[in-house]
Amino acid sequence: MNRYSCFICGIILLSITMLTGCSKQNLNATSFNAEPTVNLIYYTIGDPDKDLALVNDKINEILMKKIGITITYNKIGWQEYDDRMNTMISSDSPFDIAFAPDYAKYAKRGVWLKLNDYFLDLAKEMYLTIDPIFWKGAEMDDGFIYGVPTNKELAVRENWMYPDSLVKKYNIKVNQYNTLESLEPLLRMIQKNEPDYLPMELDRDSHNFFAMYGYEYIGDNRLPLMIQSLDPAAPVVNIFETREAKHILDTLRRYYQLGFINQDAALREPGSLKRGVKVFWESGSGGPLSESVWSNDLGYKIVTNPVTPEVATTEAVRGGMMVVNANTKHPVESIKFLNLLNTDPELRNLFQYGIEGVHYTLDQNGQVVLSSTKDSQGNPLPKANGGYTGIQYTQGNWFILNTLGGSYPDPLNKWEQFRIYNSKVVESQVLGFTPDLSEVAEQIDNIEIVWRKYYPSLMTGSVDVDIILPKFNHELHEAGIDKVRKEIQKQLDRWRE
């Protein structure tokens, strides 16, 4: 009996040991097969930075801690971004989130995720944070919102900028110069007295001088169809057939012939302000207090004068849209990321300025002082924040950003001034209107070819207006601009009803 009992006990103990071993194996198998962290692929515009991977790692630390995800942060150069996005969309390449310069076109094609349902729960905080006018402008004709607008200034105005040193030297009252023709005596004076300065700088994309007369584009500026923003019954017009356009072009031509405008204007690539270049007049699109940012970009103090109305246009409110790919495998995580980016100051400041202590420091007022190097004269010189630069208008809520300090600091109450500014902005009569151009796609392509042929030279004064403008309009007609205009007018009439 004792030998039998020992045998039975041995069998039982062996079985227990084997079961225990199996349990441990199953436990280990469970831990090795745990769900991997969701990683979102994110694309935005801007030159890739030396320290982009370093910033990406820091972003992922915060995202893991707060919402349990990571991202792969990709930046595509300014001249390449549109083509790369078109290619990715056409080839159905995988990505989750992107900056969308062609927001409306692809929303109509179903490329972006519908967001409305998420505003009730996952994105409720973000939805309530962003100004309602932005959401109104982002809404498409089907009643859905397909992207998250950057919460910034509601009206993007053309600002004419001048070096503060010359303004003080000649006691110039910049707010007295609000039309192109009014600039002539100033430009003559600078040309005569300050030969080191270029009187007026333009590039091949030129500037929206037509907005000074109350016009806004119905679509992209490569389709030269515009409408008066505040006239509820205004028709759609080819802007280059208007008196205002002829007047602007004649003035620019005269300035070019007088040597005020850079001779390479029709060829010069658009882009950020050139640091250290001596220019008297430049133009930039922005909101209130943009001079501190532009002063830091140029390396010397400037003063600005806004010359276009405070109108919230569709183009302005859709200028910084972040979208989610409709084919994403991670819609919930993408929404959580966008919600956090628009409501969490730590994450938003990291995207904008990089890593504290590496790319910037905070002064005693909590303002950002960018890391710098020095130029050949030993002057402090911001250099891409020491290796990283955020593209502010593309990446979420501005009102939770630290303001800029340093040589040209922002006012400490900058965001309060922005709120006051936004409260005074007037909505365009066509805010949110988005024409469906699918039926005239061939004409649109042909019009853009003509636009590229003539627009840069006309809008920089580089050619004889009386000869080239009629050719431009003739070829626009041949390309089908009348058909496109009538189609947009028909849709606008229905929309107004």
TrEMBL record:
Domain DUF3502 span(s) in chain numbering: 430-496
KW Signal (keyword) present: yes
N-terminal signal peptide: 1-20
Xref: InterPro entries: Bact_solute-bd_prot1 (IPR050490), DUF3502 (IPR022627), SBP (IPR006059)
Signal found in the keyword field: yes
Alphabetically ordered keywords of this record: Signal
SUPFAM superfamilies: Periplasmic binding protein-like II
Protein name: DUF3502 domain-containing protein
